[in-house]
Amino acid sequence: MDTNKLSTSESLSKKKGKKAKKKVKSEEGPVVEMEAAESEVKQEKSSSGATFPPSFGMSDIKNKQRRHMMHMKLKQEKRKEKLELKKKRKREREAFGDKAPPKEVPKTIENQRVYDETTVNPEDEEVAFDEGTDEFSAYFNRLTNPKVLITTSDRPRTRTVKFCEQLATVIPDAHVYYRRGLALKRVIPQCVSHGFTYLLVVNEDRKVPNGLILCHLPDGPTAHFKVSGVRLRKEMKRRGKEPTEHSPEVILNNFSTRLGHTIGRQLAALFPHDPQFVGRQVATFHNQRDFIFFRFHRYIFKNEKRVGIQELGPRFTLKLRSLQKGTFDSKFGEYEWVHKRHEMDSCRRKFHL
């Protein structure tokens, strides 16, 4: 009896041992498979350098934080690759010395610009004749001095009024008047009778200046601009002291086409053609991609070689919307040029100024 009991107990223990071994083997199997899969994934990541498979898109990650983290990792890897390529090219250039290939010129919107047929050559005889006979020739020949009236749209807000007041400190012989609900067709004859040569109207939307009408008197032309990026003097950091009453110098940059030449001369005619260099003040109109950036500076001579610059303000950006012949007439006016959005969308590298 005892031997039978022992044999049965031994057989039971052997069976249990076999089952346990089978379980251990079955448990060890998927662990080994998982480790092998992880090692394969790591090898793929190290070989490709990406944090996710190529078939897996960033938009497939539903977790916003995880998606942002993956995007930052990918961006960092691209930056590292770019730096390594840059260092490699630098080492090759140093190794070759004078025989090294020239540096590649980066592609920008300016150097990829589509050539405009109306580009003006300043030394052309036809251009010189037009400059001597156009509406602004009297200012550049010092026969007349500009006198500017600055007004606003109806019921202007505080920001627009302050902007007009600061414009009046930039433009010599400029006067700010409240409009009093009068139509521009009634304002223009009054300006002509009082000897004004320019009417400058600042429009606003949602308490912010957003438009500017520049009308040359008495015979035009009239330019309509979109205004953006207005910053008053109090909003500017490291600004200089208040501007003086001296007539500033005027700098016009990149007005190269026929239209740009006309707009540049119209803006330059706002200022007297005899700048007072004692004031050391400069008004700059810089055209870039059909945006006209205005800056007002004072320069300071530190020594014979160094010059310091202080921005006085205000600063703003203009975008030409239309150029009209004659004075302002919204119904029956004849337009020389009108901004067409679909043309700009079809060719973003073509500029008009």
Q: How would you describe the overall organization of this protein?
A:
This protein is an alpha+beta fold and 353 residues long. The chain contains eight helices and eleven strands. Strands 1, 2, 3, 4, 5, 6, 7, 8, 9, 10 and 11 form an eleven-stranded mixed beta sheet that branches. The chain starts with a helix and ends in a 7-residue tail after the last helix. The model is unreliable at 1-9, 18-34 and 44-50 (pLDDT under 50).
Main β-sheet, in a few words?
A: 11 strands, mixed
The overall pLDDT average reads 83
Distance between the termini: 115 Å
Q: Which bin fits the share of residues in helices?
A: 25-40%
Present the secondary structure layout.
Blueprint: H1 2-48, H2 64-96, H3 125-133, H4 137-140, E1 148-152, H5 158-170, E2 174-176, H6 184-193, E3 198-205, E4 208-216, E5 222-231, E6 249-253, H7 258-268, E7 281-288, E8 291-301, E9 307-311, E10 315-324, E11 335-338, H8 341-346
Parallel strand pairs: 1-2, 1-3, 6-7
Antiparallel strand pairs: 3-4, 4-5, 5-10, 7-8, 8-9, 8-10, 10-11
